[in-house]
Hints:
Belongs to the nonaspanin (TM9SF) (TC 9.A.2) family. Keywords: Membrane, Signal, Transmembrane, Transmembrane helix. The protein is mostly beta strands. The chain has strands at residues 8-10, 14-22, 39-48, 67-69, 84-89. The chain has a three-stranded mixed beta sheet with strand order 3-2-5, with no helix packed on it. The chain starts with 7 loop residues before the first strand and ends with a strand.
Amino acid sequence: EKFDKPHTYYLSNHVDLKVTYHSGEGEDWGVGFHGNSGRIISVKVVPRSIHHKDPAKPDCSGKDPVEIPSGNLKAGEKLNITYTYSITFE
Length: 90
């Protein structure tokens, strides 16, 4: 992604969370949870900037970043920002 447009701010409004875990299968320490246990080994967080074309239905596959032009908002003008996240387990 390029973040080099003059007089523009870019916002990281999305995080990708990658959770690495040990399922506990075959281990004694998970017996009391009837197979619904595990141990988190690590969580990697990668921030991104995603311009959601339809905030009501955010699509995290977008490649365009959120661009906020420098300058003041006009009276009564609002700036709406959609924040999202995605999680993968390994």
